[in-house]
UniProtKB/TrEMBL annotation:
Monomer. The lineage of its organism: Bacteria, Bacillati, Bacillota, Bacilli, Bacillales. Its main location: cytoplasm. Belongs to the class-I aminoacyl-tRNA synthetase family. It is found in: Cytoplasm. PANTHER family: ARGININE--TRNA LIGASE, CYTOPLASMIC, ARGINYL-TRNA SYNTHETASE. The keyword Ligase applies. This is Arginine--tRNA ligase. It comes from Heyndrickxia shackletonii. Transmembrane segments: none annotated. It is an enzyme of class 6 (ligase). Residues 451-562 form the DALR anticodon binding domain. GO terms for molecular function: arginine-tRNA ligase activity; ATP binding.
Length: 562
């Protein structure tokens, strides 16, 4: 229920024709101090229209509104009209709705009959899964879940980096120094080593680069042996990535990577030619863009090889044909901002109206002790190791807190991985994030484990109470009303988080809901045999529903016990 709407409708009844309901709605504010009211309406604008002082108007309106049974208290505070809703009535509506809808509570309809494709994760074959790929995976997954909750059809695409000149280098290096058994045992580490060795050797042996170019050329021309190697590298790498996706609980609808578009680029190049958009510059073929802040988009190198951008153009056209998307989100680090502007710019020059729906969703970096955190430099720190470490630390924390917990391993996995995901999503997307496992994993403060723990605590209350039919009749205290207002916000939060492409809106909301619940829990004896017992338990039940569903959307599990 939109409380602003309720107030706007009431005010409109008293202000016939002076202000439209929409204007009234937009003027309504949420007081900073909840003790002043649930909502406030400033009367300055009305003053001009009614030729009375705002204070006078606030007083008059409060007398009128005081008659309505929607409000328990209506107060003029200077030029503001402040209202308190009758928490019993509203609470009954809200909690009853949550209990009735269950995990479907908050399902929206803005996305009905619309499709969103998400280009996300997209690691590079034979290279370590970087922290940037982790962010892309986690943010992309949350955005997909948010879109789904808003009613969109979603398509999650892993645009694997499985083509390009680096494969010429890898094939060359493997043929010279590779060992099949070693690669099989540790694909990413071994292939990365070969890649690094290639660059070291190339400093001394100046023929190597040319060999690698020739190897890639023969790969592009369909050389059987090289293609087989490429396929093998791809399969082994994907297997290793799958281990990470399993841990993160993320799946994809498509693994069509860059190589998939090999036979789909001629079409783009022909189209650009036909529209006379291709120009030659230093032997390369480029498209100049209208926005002269942007460098020309490189389509073909002087040796005829196609490029990253060419593949993205082909991919966008293919996705539009295949999925008829309304929105295409590219969840990729901010260092690729220019690239995505160029790609969109070229599609616009081709008069593809649907390019309007393409959005680059950039994000900041992970920092460790203030410096860029990398899975590449020096020792190869594999993301899987980071995740395992988080799980171990979670296990230790859990065993300290609850030594007799059954399924401790499984819970530790949900908590360890959940902590990393939540920490990522709670931060505004563009911010750089300090990566500290210790901070992420504490049960206090604004962490994933804190929200998970709140959920588990609420679940254990319900388990103790052993109720099977919930029914909310109304509660009068301030603590429960704070919780109810939060619950009531959930549908709006989902829509806002999606519209702003900001999972942090939802993550912060879950922290606030948890805080309001924990405050309540500290103050009120929930399992006390009085006439409000069933209402309190129903409220607790509603909290567990929303916390669990909110965490699910973020990609975080909510164990019943921790
Ligand atoms: N593989 C690329 C990288 O690791 C990211 C690909 C992003 N998606 C795209 N359609 N270009 O940098």
């Amino acid at each position: 229920m939109d409380l602003k709407q309720v107030l706007a409708v009431c005010l409109k009844d008293y202000l016939h024709g002076v202000l439209t309901q929409e204007k009234i709605y937009n003027l309504i504010e949420i007081p900073k101090n909840p003790e002043h009211g649930d909502l406030a309406f400033p009367c300055f604008q009305l003053a001009k229209l009614l030729k009375k002082s705002p204070v006078e108007i606030a007083t008059e309106l409060s007398e009128e509104l005081g008659k309505s049974n929607h409000f328990s208290k209506v107060n003029p505070i200077g030029p503001y009209l402040n209202v308190f809703f009758s928490s019993k009535e509203i609470g009954k509506k809200v909690v009853t709705e949550v209990l009735k809808d269950g995990h479907a509570f908050g399902k929206g309809s803005i996305g009905e009959n619309k499709t969103v494709v998400l280009d996300m994760s997209s690691p590079n074959i034979a290279r370590p899964f970087s922290m940037g790929h982790l962010r892309s995976t986690v943010i992309g997954n949350a955005l997909a879940n948010l879109a789904d909750k808003c009613g969109y059809k979603t398509v999650k695409i892993n645009h694997l980096g499985d083509w390009g000149t680096q494969f010429g280098k890898l094939i060359t290096a493997y043929k010279k120094w590779g060992d099949e058994e070693k690669v099989k045992a540790n694909p990413i580490q071994e292939l990365s080593k070969l890649y690094v060795k290639f660059h070291e050797e190339a400093e001394i042996n100046h023929n190597l680069e040319a060999e690698a170019r020739a190897a890639f050329k023969s790969l592009e021309d369909g050389d059987k042996e090289n293609l087989q190697l490429w396929q093998w590298f791809r399969d082994e790498s994907l297997k290793a990535f799958m281990g990470i996706y399993d841990l993160l609980g993320v799946s994809f609808d498509s693994y069509n990577g860059e190589a998939f578009y090999n036979d789909k680029m001629d079409e783009v190049v022909d189209l650009l030619k036909e529209r006379k958009l291709l120009e030659t510059s230093d032997g390369a073929e480029v498209v100049k863009l209208d926005n002269n802040q942007l460098p020309p988009c490189l389509i073909k190198k002087s040796d005829g090889a196609t490029l990253y951008a060419t593949r993205d153009l082909a991919a966008a056209i293919y996705r539009q044909k295949t999925y008829q998307f309304d929105t295409a989100l590219y969840v990729v680090g901010q260092e690729q901002t220019v690239h995505f502007k160029q790609v969109k710019g070229v599609l616009e020059k081709l008069d593809f109206g649907w390019a309007d729906g393409m959005h680059h969703i950039p994000f900041g970096l992970y920092l460790k002790d203030g410096k860029r955190m990398s899975t590449r430099k020096g020792r190869v720190i594999l993301l899987e190791e980071v995740l395992r470490e988080a799980i171990q630390l979670a296990e230790k924390n859990i065993k300290d807190k609850n030594p007799t917990l059954v399924n401790a391993n499984q819970v530790a996995e949900s908590v360890g991985v959940g902590a990393i995901i939540f920490h990522d999503l709670k931060n505004d997307r563009m911010n750089n994030i300090e990566f500290s496992l210790k901070d992420m994993l504490t049960f206090e403060g604004e962490t994933g484990p804190y929200v998970q723990y709140t959920h588990a605590r609420a679940m254990s209350i319900l388990q103790k109470a052993e109720i099977d039919e919930y029914e909310f009749h109304g509660l009068n205290d301030q603590g429960s009303w704070e919780i109810i207002k939060h619950l009531n916000h959930f549908p709006d939060i989902i829509e806002n988080a999606y519209n702003q492409f900001s999972p942090s809106v939802l993550a912060k909301y879950l922290i606030h809901l948890s805080q309001s619940f924990n405050k309540y829990y500290a103050k009120v004896r929930i399992i006390e045999k009085d006439e409000e017992l069933l209402s309190r338990l129903s409220l607790v039940k509603a909290v567990t529903i929303v916390l669990k569903e909110g965490l699910r959307i973020l990609g975080v599990k909510a164990p019943n016990e921790m």
